[in-house]
Amino acid sequence: MKTLHGSCLCGGVVYRAAGPVHHSSHCYCTMCRKQHGAAAGTYANVDRAGYVIEQGAALVTEYASSEHGRRGFCKVCGSTLFWRSTDSPERIAVTLGTLEPEYDGPVERELHTDTKPRWLPVR
């Protein structure tokens, strides 16, 4: 079982997430795009029981972006750390861009492709 390790941009928040990764995804919903300032939010979905903030727990804050969605970020540098649903409290989705070393698994899913930006390059 692989453990993922990550941190925020300023290094104030350090976390680990025990595997397995149930799936990883690019989410093109408007909320993910706005939060990340990018074409998508990219996440690895793992068991919440294995998610541990090793350093800087007091720096993590959450934004309730919907009735059930919670987005965690560092209140110092603004790095997006995770997304979680109150409808599925047993899971948490950590942001792939915060992982060290870089995530080496596949991204199997694309979510909300109806709002995928037209300006993305065609493969």
From TrEMBL:
One Pfam family matching this protein: GFA
InterPro entries tied to this protein: CENP-V/GFA (IPR006913), Mss4-like_sf (IPR011057)
Name this protein carries in UniProt: GFA family protein
Residue ranges occupied by any CENP-V/GFA domain in the UniProt entry: 4-120
MF terms in GO: carbon-sulfur lyase activity; metal ion binding
Presence of the UniProt keyword Kinase in the record: no
Record-stated family: Belongs to the Gfa family.
Organism: Pseudoduganella plicata
Keyword field: Lyase, Metal-binding, Zinc
